[in-house]
Each structure stands twice: as structure tokens, then as C-alpha cells.
Amino acid sequence: MYKNHRVAVVMPIHNEEAHLALAISRVPPLVDLIIAVDDGSIDGTWDRLARIESEKLVRIRHEKNRGVGAATKTGYLRALEAGVELIAVMDGDGQMDGCDLPALLDRAISGVDYVKGNRFLHTQSISAMPASRYVGNRIFSWLTRKSARIPSSLDAQCGYTVIRRVALNRLRLGDLYDRYGFPNEMLFAAAAEGLRVESVPVRSVYENEVSGINPLTAVPTILFLIARKNLRDRLPFKNARAAFASQKRESNSVK
Fold it and tell me: Could you tell me if 60 and 36 are in contact, meaning their C-beta atoms sit under 8 angstroms apart?
């Protein structure tokens, strides 16, 4: 419980046997529920997860690997079933500092619908981030921010987020991409629904983790998702549907 709000952390996991215990230990005590989703790991992740003792821990397993987006969506749906008010995402590699979570939660409690962690706003994270990752994230963040029409600074690929329950219920999760690129899709969906999106500085903890992201597949995928978003925005029926949805929300608010 945090300031009278129930909090869940969704943790998508894939082949993180060596880092899983550390990642869960970094979830602060204020969290009411930890939803760990093992996305078809082929190492000892599931066995390691089963040995972690915690009354807060909910274990879910995808028999086959479906992607980080799919694992996050599974966790989101479980959190909605639990009725928590604020839902965070922290990855299973232990790179996210639990000390940053209250700042994200405070921003959500203040009225922001979707709060994104932003490593670019944290000097220590920038200095520790590998150069190639920094450049790639900067480019993707700029392209995503322009496509989503988000005016403020953005770290599009950062998975450290908090979303309010009422905001998550407005998103059509089933339509979002299941694999790497899901954070970009979440931003596009949030923008399309008129959700308030803001960033909070967060620190990344880089130790001996090896990134499982293949740039040969990840880069074209993200560029495709961004291009698809821009194309859809230019289609007449898309604009008409968005206008209709906006009018419907205004009508409901008047009632």
C-alpha cells in the first residue's frame, strides 16, 4: 500500500535465472502484489521462481515464448483482476532501482495516467549506458515522441512505468504488439486515447547482464511500428474514428 493506493508490479521474465532473485529483491516493500510472468524461459527461471518465498508473489508461466509485450499484457490483466489502483512494470533483469518507484507512483497519484521512467533525465544512468544503446534509444525516443505527439522529454524504450487502473482499462491491450517494441505501442495507444503521459528520472543498474535484444530484428521492428503509426494517422477513417471517440467521451462526461 502506498498513500492509500494498492500497488502491483508486473515483471516480465525470460531466461533470467541468474538475475531473478535480485530483480524481485529490488521491488520495494510498499508494493502489494508482484506478478512475475515467465515468458517461456528455457533455463532454470521457472524453478528459481518457484523457490522464492513471498506472500506477495504471483507466478504465471507462458509455456512458449510470446514476447515481452505479451508477458506484460498477461501481467496487466492479472493486476486488473486483483483490483489494484496503480500498476508498475519492472523488468526481470534487475536493472531497475526500486528506490525510484515512489517518484513514479507520486506522479500517477497526482493525476498523470501513464508515467514513464526516463534514463536520459538521470546523469548517472546516461554515464553508465553503453554508447550504442544510448544512441539507438535517443533516436527511437525522438521518433516515437514525434509520432505520438508527446511534447516533453521521452525515453521510449524504458520499460519502467506506472499506469493508473482507470487508464489501463481504456486501452485495447489485445491490439498491441507482443514483442520488443511494446513500449512504443503503449505510448501510441495512450496518446490515441488522450491519456496524460509524463516522465520521471530513473536510474538503470548495469552489472553483468547480457542484453537479449537482437538489433538486427529489434531495429526494423520498431521502425515498422513507428511507420505504421504515422500511416494510420493519415488514413481518413482513422481520423474519423478518433473524432467520434473524442465526441463520445465528451458526451459521457456531460452525463
Answer: yes
Q: Name, in order, each residue with C-beta under 8 angstroms of 119's C-beta and a sequence gap of 6 or more.
A: 125, 126, 129, 137, 155, 158, 201, 202, 203, 204
Q: How far apart are CA 35 and CA 80, in angstroms?
A: 11
Question: Taking the CB of residue 80, how many other CB atoms lie within 10 A of it?
Answer: 15
- Number of Cβ within 10 Å of residue 55's Cβ equals 6
Quick check: 200 and 92 in contact, CB under 8 A? no
Q: Which of 228, 149, 146 is nearest to 181 (CA)?
A: 228
Place of cell 463520445: 248
Q: What residues pair up with 12 in beta bridges, in sequence order?
A: 37
Q: What is the 8-class DSSP label of residue 148?
A: H
Going from N- to C-terminal start, the domains of the chain cover 7-254
Cα 106 to Cα 99: distance, rounded to the nearest angstrom = 13
Give the whole-angstrom CA distance, residue 115 versus residue 197. 6
- Give one word for 97, left, alpha or beta, with left for phi > 0 and alpha for psi -120 to 50: beta
Contacts of residue 81, Cβ cutoff 8 Å, sequence gap at least 6: none
- Secondary-structure class of domain 7-254 per CATH: alpha beta
pTM of the model: 0.85
Q: Give the tens place of pLDDT for each residue, 200-242.
A: 999 988 665 555 566 667 788 888 888 888 778 877 555 555 5
